[in-house]
Amino acid sequence: MRVAFERPSALADIPTHYCPGCTHGIAHRLVAETLEELKVFDRAVGIAPVGCSVLAYNYFDCDMVQAAHGRAPAVATGLKRARPDAVVFTYQGDGDLASIGMAELVHAAARGECITVVFINNAIYGMTGGQMAPTTLLGQHTSTSPAGREPGREGFPIRVCELLERVRGVAYLARIPLTSPANVARARSSVRKAFQTQLEGKGFALVELLSSCPTGWGMPPREALRWVDEVMTEYYPPGEFRTEPGDPGGGPAGKRGSQP
Amino acid sequence: MRVAFERPSALADIPTHYCPGCTHGIAHRLVAETLEELKVFDRAVGIAPVGCSVLAYNYFDCDMVQAAHGRAPAVATGLKRARPDAVVFTYQGDGDLASIGMAELVHAAARGECITVVFINNAIYGMTGGQMAPTTLLGQHTSTSPAGREPGREGFPIRVCELLERVRGVAYLARIPLTSPANVARARSSVRKAFQTQLEGKGFALVELLSSCPTGWGMPPREALRWVDEVMTEYYPPGEFRTEPGDPGGGPAGKRGSQP
Amino acid sequence: MVEKRVLFTEDRCKGCELCLDACPQKIIFMAEHMNGKGFHPAAVTDQERCTGCALCARMCPDLVITVYRPERPTKAVS
Amino acid sequence: MVEKRVLFTEDRCKGCELCLDACPQKIIFMAEHMNGKGFHPAAVTDQERCTGCALCARMCPDLVITVYRPERPTKAVS
Amino acid sequence: MKYEVIIAGFGGQGVMSMGQLLAYAGMLEGRQVTWMPSYGPEQRGGTANCTVILSSRSIGSPVVGRPSAVIAMNLPSLDKFEGKVIPGGLLIVNSTLVARRPSRDDVTVLLIPATGLAAELGNERVANMVALGALLEATGQVKPESVLDSLKKALPPHRHNLIPLNQQALERGRQLARERLGREAG
Amino acid sequence: MKYEVIIAGFGGQGVMSMGQLLAYAGMLEGRQVTWMPSYGPEQRGGTANCTVILSSRSIGSPVVGRPSAVIAMNLPSLDKFEGKVIPGGLLIVNSTLVARRPSRDDVTVLLIPATGLAAELGNERVANMVALGALLEATGQVKPESVLDSLKKALPPHRHNLIPLNQQALERGRQLARERLGREAG
Amino acid sequence: MDELVLMKGNEAVGEAAIRAGCRFFFGYPITPQNEIPEYMSRRLPEVGGVFVQAESELAAINMVYGCAAAGARAMTSSSSPGISLKQEGISYLCGSELPALIVNMIRGGPGLGTIQPAQSDYFQAVKGGGHGDYRVLVYGPASVQEMVDLTYLAVGRADHYRNPVLVLGDGILGQMMEPVRFPAAVDPAGLPEKPWATNGRRGGPKRLLNSLYLEPEKCEDHNRELQAKYCEMAATEKRWETVATEDAELVVVAYGTTARICRTGLEGLRERGVPVGLFRPISLWPFPDEALDALIEGGKVRSLLAVEMSAGQMVEDVRLAARGRVPVHFYGRAGGMVPQPEEIQEHVRALLEGGAANAGGL
Amino acid sequence: MDELVLMKGNEAVGEAAIRAGCRFFFGYPITPQNEIPEYMSRRLPEVGGVFVQAESELAAINMVYGCAAAGARAMTSSSSPGISLKQEGISYLCGSELPALIVNMIRGGPGLGTIQPAQSDYFQAVKGGGHGDYRVLVYGPASVQEMVDLTYLAVGRADHYRNPVLVLGDGILGQMMEPVRFPAAVDPAGLPEKPWATNGRRGGPKRLLNSLYLEPEKCEDHNRELQAKYCEMAATEKRWETVATEDAELVVVAYGTTARICRTGLEGLRERGVPVGLFRPISLWPFPDEALDALIEGGKVRSLLAVEMSAGQMVEDVRLAARGRVPVHFYGRAGGMVPQPEEIQEHVRALLEGGAANAGGL
Ligand SMILES: Cc1ncc(C[n+]2csc(CCOP(=O)(O)OP(=O)(O)O)c2C)c(N)n1
Ligand SMILES: Cc1ncc(C[n+]2csc(CCOP(=O)(O)OP(=O)(O)O)c2C)c(N)n1
Ligand code: SF4
Ligand code: SF4
Ligand code: SF4
Ligand code: SF4
Ligand code: SF4
Ligand code: SF4
Ligand SMILES: [Mg+2]
Ligand SMILES: [Mg+2]
Q1: Do A128 and G29 touch (CB under 8 A)?
Q2: Nearest CA to ligand 7 atom 2
Q3: Residue of H102, H227, H196 whose CA lies nearest to H157
Q4: Nearest-CA residue for atom 1 of ligand 3
Q5: Nearest-by-Cβ selection for B144 from H31, H37, H55
Q6: Does H48 touch chain A if contact means CB atoms closer than 8 Å?
Q7: How far is CA A41 from CA A34, A62, A207, B4, F7, in A?
Q8: Which domains, from first to last, does chain F contain?
């Protein structure tokens, strides 16, 4: 018998602190497998965020730096500029990346920093106990949107890929839900492309993984995955938004008014 | 003889500190005229940024608040939430709004705050003496991009309207150059719409005014206006990007994948 | 006794049941007993029905599952 | 002497010349003398050629210009 | 006088609310009280605990190194807190989930199969009330009625249907403690 | 000994570089020097000034309340600094642009039509060198050769063609000062 | 709600602020103070108020700035790293003279540190973590009831002085429950007008809220006025408590949670006849130095022991007050560790026996 | 470049950092230090370095964090409001024990304040404007040459201690030109390896840079180690200068720009036979307290006068060192106003004649 599946060696062989059924674990594995597959584990440096995945610094067995809440892209910038031969990735939740860290994200993208951002969108602040995230859906109840998110009060959820799609400097951009073996396989291929983009020096790469937070959502894990598939993907359509660098244009009222 | 044109009374009758030919002065006038025209001067509160226009607090004769660099949209949010009947506008430069203030901008937009943002894009940091701005064009020489902005070193210029076009919560969005009487008339109509959007409670409104900084660019004023028309508008196409609230969608690779 | 194709590191299992839905053979079930962490761990007894497709393992957030496959490749999805 | 249609508050002028390009009549010129700020101010002497269109005023960043128009509207752009 | 209790168990076992009920009851009886939870990032599967102090005088430290009593609802809690009970103190152990016997011989040990008894009553979730009943019986710190009064205040009206079950569980705990302590019904 | 000069004028008149040349020249002559600009947000049309101190001992404050000499290249500068020159000090006024006569009678006043003379030499921008020449002549603080040496160091090689013009301007200023002071050529 | 209720410190802070007429909360989650925003998101809509979860602590403090500019009573809360991010904003609030309630439930640092309680943000709070010469009134409550009372007071004092007021708690005070009674509710509609508030001229004179003074003379004048205000605060806002200091030879100086732990420890020593007392600063800025001074001048005190959940910060203010007249010792725990009464007792005993040196703990 | 050159303080700082082997600059424009980023944007590419204009001060300090994590010598600079925004980042640098050079060219505050020089960020610098117990080595240069020397030193000390070092200048020091001589250039390639740097394992053990310690015991241990390091710094890094203090009855204590102004003033007094001296702290943290102590113990000094461009911040450290043995007076200017030597002279004379009270200026 040969081994058809085993723990990637890029992940430390210790139990994680994540809740039962939390897809952070799947995302970790995809990154670890990619580091091995692309043979870059040895020059990889990961930036752990502030969020449930802060302890990712213990799980990824490569060099790791813990960053202040939201600032991982800035930390990654400093690191990558000092060591262009390092393979630098950040691993960030929606609160970290899209709320407090919005400026650092957009500017790292616009600078076209050759880094890979793994973005875990679980529509909530898991770590701090289930508060509203910038990606919390309309109507979703959280501990700080107790009556359900209502645009007039709590505003609209932010779509990170759609936003970054408009930023020149971005070279790869995709969104995949971590909800089934097929989707996980797709996610893995996207994670791989996001690292390859860095290796080829093309620019900024981000993969958004639609994830579950059974605890924060108050749902059993399987129901949580169904909710991702049925509710989240409606507002956050999966797919590849960008696969090459270039000028995304835009322009007034849909016209692509600008030259590349 | 009747008066065909005179200083709007919403502007204090004092000389400004702006350099000769700086279009900040034109932008001021457009805002002041709009406040009068819409008869909202008396309940207007302006938020002055940090930038050449910091002293706007002296020029606009309505109530004014000076905000920390980049935080005007957050200050406006606090003010508008406390006094929904006030007509709140921020007046911000490109450094203030698109660099240090990127997170506050995107989030005020996503919350759909009923405020009006007047955005002066002059592709440079005027106040501090001509450093690179997030909107500085590729190839443009500034005191911190002395060899000309080069994407691999200084990244790409950010298009604010194109970016915000993807943010739900935005209700009005336009870009106009302040380069000729006809364009100034267009700009005036856009400024007016941006205030009307607020009055109708529709959501977040922003007008980007392509402006000149003769001093920072090292050009005579008339040449500077030509540069706006000939060079800036190429990367920053003028026009209305959004005239109503609604879901801008987006979606992977151009597909509009999401429901409104 | 058949050779094991799918192995669960029981003490790492958090009983989330995500592997259940992933298995095309529907052979994974939750054990009656509790593991050291207080969870009912996932298990497979019907080892010969396992195709070694590893779909369960790819959905397990906690790397509980190791999968072996006979040297001659099966037809299952890889 | 003709009634003035366009009036320049000379001391506020910064000599930027933006009004020059704006005037369809091309009657604005920069004066020889300097104002208190050290700039050569803009001026119009050919008042009767002024249509009162106010385009100059709408381009002036410094609100130097006030424009008057005969009560009976002219044909000029408003 | 001051009485300090640490209540510990898995996240879902209701140890926090057990402590709150005790503190609330103490307050209703006019005593000084504090309730202090352990808090941490959401690390499910870990153990949670809280400290309740009941006192006739104003309470200094809400954090207690050596409690008068410990309720251990699971094994990790017993492991962690067994050694901390003061000599002569009380140690209540949820014997349904905890296989081993405590090793302390200088404290009163009450083995209460709280989870089992709660299951018998139809809902494992009231295991905390069983354990609390045992504590009340063994210490006499607050009256069971005060705990029930607290429960009424704590539960929203539409949940008041749960009160009888909780009362039963509390009684069951008291009864068993009485038996174990060889006391007569009071 | 310490010599303190304030040089003031419009933004474009080269007052800053005039100060820097003076300081550089002082440094080349082995003296202690400081150059301190007024700095502010870019408010064009305002006045700019700098302070140069030349001293045989280490310099304490680089900021000077009462300078030994003032060069006023425009009217606002004269208004602002006229009163600050120490009694017995020197006041150089760019009389091309400044219509009024200074009112101080306890200082040496040199009216130098610097802008006019520079225009005569073909470039208004060397007015600062004319004024500097007058200062050198009147005070003897540094040698003209040191200023020219400084100029060579300060200008990039492709601008060295400007040196003769600057030298002429410096000379013109010295000459005029000599005349005004009733001195013989040195 | 005059009755006694059992409440978490965090929630009590929120309710106290509402009672004091605060209807606007702008904040961002961070442990161990999440119950404050969570409570406010539930409660404020019930009383016609507004809760906004800001995109960051930085945005939150600037929303408070805008809200206060409009004349409303506004607050924010956070814990250590989040409070660091507010430092520029706090300096601006002081510069523009805007009232605000700021709550810091301290956790151990530096950096991400730990989420457990600490008192290591004392310097930042009382000396000023932001730029420029400014002062913030700082209260250090020691119980949930005092959190209520001082929060309530803070809201009023902020308006009175047009200055931010900081309530400095810690993880324990935020997380613990104690019985509390709430003061009478203030109706925000009944509060006096703020003529300086920028809510639209509405026929009146133009108002400007600003901290920029390009001319240094004007900026110094402005600073002089601010300093005069701080002097007035220093003269009138000092608060403290003493326990058994009359005949004490050794006085422990501690605030907040640490003070109540020390009290427990000292009660035990007193029972055994050890002549110890407790001096508890309640206002941390202004530090109640004259009261401590008087204690020293009383002549009985032979030494002071500052106890903190930090590496030694308040102890500097104790030393400043002591001016070398009596030795000032220090005992501290850090990184989320909470001292136990027994430790305090041992340390005091060692000191009285002349054992411990002029440092300790940590 | 061993020759003397006339250079602006801001540019000299940049060149000194490069000489010290710093090849990475991350910053954001702000007056009065814009010449630092401008100089670096020109110079760094010439020496194979990298200049990044960050989107904000916050991003800049976090880029420094990442760059330092990779093992490189990195720096940032700003002025007061921008430094406030870096406080969280500075706390993180200390927590993760990362070296960095930070330059603050102070301007008057609070809020937007003024762009003119001040010393009102002393507390923030030396007490810690961020959260948690941490210390940063702080140097206060008084001339352009000293800016060069101390910046050069700072880069090395930062690496030595794995701790940020702050150079605290002001608008004057940044804007003025003085002749300077540069020390020998350090080749960054020749610097010792940093085994802790996270630049990819490359066959070695895993490295982690982190400041989170969820268990308070571990967090306290970490704090204990940090404190031990700070103690070592306090024991070995104190720097100061004295001028004519041997027989001085009144000693002025001042640092940076203020110190050189005081020196001018005091020279004038000395010429007239007034027995005054100057004590100039060069390291602001650690404050050279023992040296001041020795001066007081010397017995001649009858009073101290702290002079600052602030409302009184360093004066607290002077008081702590004086421990009540001699009176400590204060004279300050604020909001961008620079004291003149004559003011100092007058104030000193008034003090010696017993006129002025224990406060002054402002
Ligand atoms: C400056 C700062 N603000 C706030 C926090 C508290 N905090 C920790 S994690 C977190 C949010 C985590 O949410 P997210 O990024 O979505 O990650 P998740 O836990 O959902 O994976 C917050 C607000 C902090 N540590 N630092
Ligand atoms: C926190 C902070 N950072 C930096 C500055 C310095 N600063 C003042 S204005 C400005 C940029 C102005 O540029 P922009 O917003 O484009 O306005 P402009 O002057 O071009 O109109 C900067 C960086 C500051 N005052 N505060
Ligand atoms: S709280 Fe949510 S995101 Fe965090 S570990 Fe638990 S399930 Fe995962
Ligand atoms: S520097 Fe530029 S933006 Fe500022 S006033 Fe001058 S021209 Fe206008
Ligand atoms: S390997 Fe495939 S068949 Fe075997 S248990 Fe896992 S999912 Fe089922
Ligand atoms: S997916 Fe993994 S953790 Fe979840 S039940 Fe299956 S084996 Fe256990
Ligand atoms: S009003 Fe019209 S015609 Fe008259 S000067 Fe102005 S632009 Fe020319
Ligand atoms: S546009 Fe205005 S400021 Fe410019 S030259 Fe004409 S009148 Fe003067
Ligand atoms: Mg999340
Ligand atoms: Mg700009």
Answers
A1: yes
A2: D53
A3: H102
A4: A126
A5: H37
A6: no
A7: 9, 6, 19, 72, 62
A8: 2-181 (3.40.920.10)
- DSSP H/E element including F77: helix F75-81
C-alpha distances in angstroms, G327 versus F7, G301, G313, H44? 56, 10, 16, 52
For ligand 8, atom 6, which residue shows the shortest CA distance? D19
For residue G29, the chain E residues in CB contact (below 8 A) are: none
> What is the C-alpha to C-alpha distance for residues A171 and B155, in angstroms, rounded to an integer?
13
Q: How far is the CA of A110 from the centre of ligand 6 (A)?
A: 40
Share of chain A above pLDDT 90, in %: 95
The whole-number mean pLDDT for each consecutive block of 10 residues of chain G, a chain of 362 residues, reads 89 98 98 98 98 98 98 98 98 98 98 97 97 98 98 98 98 98 97 98 98 96 98 98 97 98 95 97 98 96 98 98 98 96 95 68 64
Q: How many CB atoms lie within 10 A of CB G188?
A: 18
Dihedral angle over CA of F50, H38, B221, A251, nearest 10: -160
Q: For residue A243, which residues of chain B lie inside 8 Å, CB to CB?
A: 253
Contact H22/H73 with Cβ under 8 angstroms?
yes
Q: Nearest to residue E75, comparing CAs of E90, E96, E92, E97?
A: E97
Mutating to test ligand 1, I would choose from A127, A136, A211 the residue with most ligand atoms within 8 A of its C-beta, which is A127
What CATH class is the domain B24-242? alpha beta
- For the domain bounded by H240-352, which CATH number is listed? 3.40.50.920
Q: Which two tokens stand for residue H115?
A: 């762009």
Q: Is F63 on the interface with H (CB under 8 A)?
A: yes
Q: Which residues surround ligand 10, an ion (CB under 5 A)?
A: B 93-94, 122
- Evaluate: CB of D14 within 6 angstroms of ligand 8: yes
| Surface-to-core class of residue E1, CB atoms within 10 Å of its CB (0-12 exposed, 13-18 middle, 19+ buried) | exposed
- Cβ(G22)–Cβ(G100) below 8 Å: no
Q: Which of B22, B125, B217 to mutate to test the pocket of ligand 4 (most atoms within 8 A of CB)?
A: B22
What is the dotted CATH code of the domain comprising H5-236? 3.40.50.970
Give the pLDDT confidence of H219-240 residue by residue, as tens digits: 999 999 999 999 999 999 999 9
DSSP result, B78-127: HHHHH-TTSEEEEEEEHIIIIIITHHHHHHHHHTT---EEEEEE-SSBTT
Q: Chain F: give the shortest CA distance to residue B135, in Å.
A: 20
The half-sphere exposure of G139 on its side-chain side, counting CA atoms within 13 A, is 25
ipTM: 0.97
| Ligand 7 site, residue D60, Cβ cutoff 6 A | no
- CB spacing of G62 vs B64 below 8 angstroms: no
* Domain topology for D6-67: Alpha-Beta Plaits (3.30.70)
Distance CA F97, CA F106 (A): 23
Place of tokens 């009270």: H357
Say if residue F28's pLDDT is above 80. yes
- Nearest CA to B46 among B93, B98, B101, B116? B116
Using a CB-CB distance cutoff of 8 angstroms, which residues of chain D are in contact with residue F45? 14, 37-39
Please indicate whether residue D13, judged by its CB atom, sits closer than 6 Å to ligand 8.
yes
Whole-angstrom distance, CA of residue H106 vs CA of residue H125: 11
Most H-contacting residue of A16, A60, A77, A107 (CB-CB within 10 A), to test interface: A77
In terms of residues, how long is chain G? 362
Q: Do chains D and C touch (3 or more CB pairs under 8 A)?
A: no
Question: Which is nearest to A66 in space by CA: A90, A84, A85?
Answer: A90
Give φ, ψ of G16 to 5 degrees: -65, -40
For chain B, the domains span: 24-242
**Closest residue by Cα to residue H55 from B23, A70, G53:** A70
Nearest-CB residue to H127 (from G123, G133, G325): G123
pTM of the model: 0.97
Q: What are phi and psi of G307, to 5 degrees?
A: -120, 130
